[in-house]
Amino acid sequence: MPSLQYSEQLQEALLRLEQTVCQEKKLREESDAILKGLSDLVGAASREEVLSVLRTTFQRLIDCSECWIMFKHGDRLISNVTELSFPIGKGFTRVMDGGVLNAFDVTQVPEWHGIHREDIRSALHLPLQLSTSTGMLILTAETAAAFSREAIELAQRIIPFSEQAASKLELIELNHMKELEEAHSLLVSLINSVPDLIFYKDTESVYMGCNTAFCQFIGKNSPDDIVGLSDFDLFDRELAQFFREKDKSMLCKSDTQRNEEWVNYPDGRRVLLDTLKTPYYNGVGKVIGLIGISRDITAFKELEEKFLQAQKMESIGTLVGGIAHEFNNTLAGITGRLFLAKSRAANDHEIIRHLDKISMLSDRSAVMIQQLLAFSRKSPVQMKNFDLTAFIKETFKLHKFSIPENIAVNTQFSHFALPVKGDATQIQQILVNLLHNARDAVNSVEKPAIAVSVGLFEADELFVNVHSTEAGERYAHLTVEDNGCGISNEDKVQIFDPFFTTKDVGKGTGLGLAMVYGAIKTHNGMVEVNSELGKGTKIEIYLPLAAGFSLHPNQHDAQLSHGHGECILFVDDEPEVRETGREVLESLGYSILEASNGSEAIEIFLANEGSIVLTILDVVMPVLGGVEAALAIKKHKQDAKVIFCTGYDKEDVLDAKDIGGNPVITKPYSIEKLSQIIQEQLVDS
Predict the structure, then answer these.
(1) Which of 158, 445, 611, 651 lies 20 to 30 angstroms, CA to CA, from 641?
(2) 157 to each of 63, 294, 386, how far by Cα in Å?
(3) How many CB atoms lie within 10 A of CB 255?
């Protein structure tokens, strides 16, 4: 019996020794795993590396499938599982307050209801005390009731290691969140600095946010004021419904869409918005709403319309040039026939009176054609000396037809020539814009009236003080005055600003007076505006007189000059013009040869080189033009005399062509002027 008792005691001792050895082995393995984990934790630099160390350490000690760490930040729990963001419920609050939650079945825990993970059946939740907050460690398993009391005790023993890992993870996460917050702050600053309207909505077209420009557009103080509202809270029902349909269409197709719509600002301004809408995705690629960017393109559309209008005017200018050529050829024939008719009816005063009337009407038609050509010309600014009095007088004859007959129009033009150096097209546009503004201003006046005057002005003391010029300096003074609606003091300071207009939408662009102001400054001139609401407007323009010119009365027409049998080659592709030209020149005492184009002219000139003293060439002709024919003629006879004539705008047809200083006359030309130019050429020869 004693030996049996001794044997049992020995076995118990050996068993206790074995248990002690096993326990020490486990403790050593536990210690080794923790030391290895701490060593690896020191070198971990990213969230993924920290979580990998934590997962490896726990899997060496406890039979678990996954390891999570969460910590409190504001009212949410931040998880290393990026697609999860847990609300803080009662169960998790208890854990972070120091308790342990052993979820034998996670489907029974309210906090897990929103997490669909078939690989998780049970979970162990342990509290963690971090440097700046509280958190929890979660171990998960793929089997139910996986964590025994021993596993819980072991997990609790190595909580200090878990807290070390969690603290490092918290630091990394908080730094990452700080970077995100800085990036978010930068993004907010960027979108608030953009003048375009930026907004974003959820899938139900409810606003989630916007930038400062959109707040100003809808009359709100802060982006927070728009959150939770819909378009029906901000716009009229028709426009809101339009926006809603566009949102639905874009979200249905999940594709970027663009549209334009007219909307009203709270202050009443009506603008055209170009809106781009694109899907708004979350982190996993799911569409959660839309992002919209709207740009005010009202001014762009106005410029586009101006560009289209300019293109149309360019086409009209080309058309006018072609029509003018035909019309001028016809007028040239009429003018020549009138000259011949008057010379035949020299003793019949009644016929002469009628012919003079026809001649006057022909001259007026010719001037109108020249004005149309000048108005449609595409050429750059060309500063030339010309008489402003005569120019304004002729320009007014053309454009007075744009003024309704019920408006009384009074004119007063100087009896003296007022020479200025300027661009005829720009000065014509100045007068046209002022006339149109005056016409519109008197639209609702009972007895509408417009007055236009051109005269001489010498700078007095008041003018010198206002415009900083020299006393006694002389100007051509153009005035356009009306008795219309007038301009308020507030508007007067803006009338020369581009796009500013007091006219109704669609009736004014705000560019007319801006162009006037720019053109006046180009000519070193000054402008004064005197106006009062309900009492009309008077606009005065002062252009400096050209240097080296003296004031003199306007000259009468030139006198007729005759020839003495000299031979002239007359070249024109229009048979009627050639026939009339031949008869007119023969009546002036010249011998005439004819040609219908430049090539034929060269042949005739070479055959009659010894007798031809002068060649009159139309510039634009089939086969060969006048300038090219003249160059060929001068190769054979360098001192050959040439006069060019054209029914087109000579600024266009002779641009960049070397005409060698030869005179150019425009159809229909004055017979008296033609006769004098011919004599000047013959005298030079």
Answers:
(1) 651
(2) 16, 60, 106
(3) 11
* Residue closest to 129 by CA, chosen among 173, 89, 170, 86: 170
Please state, in angstroms and rounded to a whole number, the distance separating the CA atoms of residues 566 and 557: 25
Q: At what angle do helices 388-399 and 349-376 cross, to 10 degrees?
A: 90
Calculate the average pLDDT of the chain: 79
Q: Which residue has the higher pLDDT, 610 or 366?
A: 610
Contact (Cβ atoms closer than 8 angstroms) between residue 619 and residue 654: yes
Per the listing, tokens 């300038």 go with 627
Q: Which residue has the tokens 């661009």?
A: 423
Q: What is the token pair recorded at 107?
A: 């489907």
Residue 199 neighbours by CB under 8 Å, 6+ apart: 207, 209, 210, 211, 214, 226, 291, 292, 294
pLDDT for the residue 649: 62
pTM for the whole structure: 0.42
What stretch of H or E contains 35?
A: helix 2-43
Per-residue pLDDT tens digits for 172-200: 777 777 877 787 788 788 888 888 888 99
Backbone torsion region of residue 482, taken as left when φ is above 0, otherwise alpha when ψ lies between -120 and 50, otherwise beta: beta
Residue type (1 letter), 54: L
CA torsion, points 382, 385, 388, 390, in degrees to nearest 10? -110
Phi, psi of 91 (to 5 degrees): -60, -45
pLDDT tens, residue by residue, 243-288:
898 888 888 888 888 888 888 766 677 888 888 888 888 877 888 8
On whether the CB atoms of residues 650 and 666 are closer than 8 A, the answer is yes
Nearest to 642 by CA among 653, 658, 626: 626
Quick one: pLDDT at residue 509? Answer: 39
Amino acid (1-letter code) at residue 225: D
3-state helix, strand and coil shares in percent for the chain, rounded to the nearest 5: 50, 20, 30
408-413: strand order across its sheet: 408-413, 449-458, 474-482, 537-544, 526-531
Map residue 623 onto helix, strand or coil: coil
Q: Does residue 379 register a pLDDT over 70? A: no
62: helix, strand or coil: coil
> Are 398 and 368 spatial neighbours (Cβ–Cβ below 8 Å)?
yes
Single out the residue of 183, 185, 212 nearest to residue 196, CA to CA.
212
Q: Contact, 193 vs 187, CB < 8 A?
A: no
Which residues pair with residue 123 across a beta bridge? 103, 140
14-28, 107-121, 123-137: the lowest-pLDDT one: 14-28
**Which residues touch 538 (CB under 8 Å, ≥6 apart)?**
479, 480, 481, 482, 529, 530, 531
Rounded mean pLDDT, 430-453: 87
Specify the DSSP class assigned to residue 545.
Answer: B
Are the C-beta atoms of residues 507 and 522 closer than 8 Å to each other? no
Q: Which residue has the tokens 């402008």?
A: 527
Positive or negative, the Cα torsion across 165, 168, 171, 177? Answer: negative
Mean predicted confidence (pLDDT) in 557-566: 78
Using CB atoms within 10 Å of the CB of residue 108, give its burial: 0 to 12 exposed, 13 to 18 middle, 19+ buried. exposed
User: CA–CA separation, 420 vs 546, rounded Å?
Assistant: 4
Query: Torsion-angle region of residue 74: left (phi > 0), alpha (psi -120 to 50) or beta?
Result: left
* Chain Cα centroid distance, residue 280: 28
Residue 363 to residue 397: CA distance in whole angstroms: 12
HSE, CB side, 13 Å, CA atoms: give it for residue 90: 2
Q: What are the C-alpha distances in Å from 678 to residues 30, 192, 329, 462, 663? A: 123, 75, 20, 51, 10
Q: How far apart are CA 618 and CA 424, in angstroms?
A: 25
Is residue 538 predicted with pLDDT exceeding 70? Answer: yes
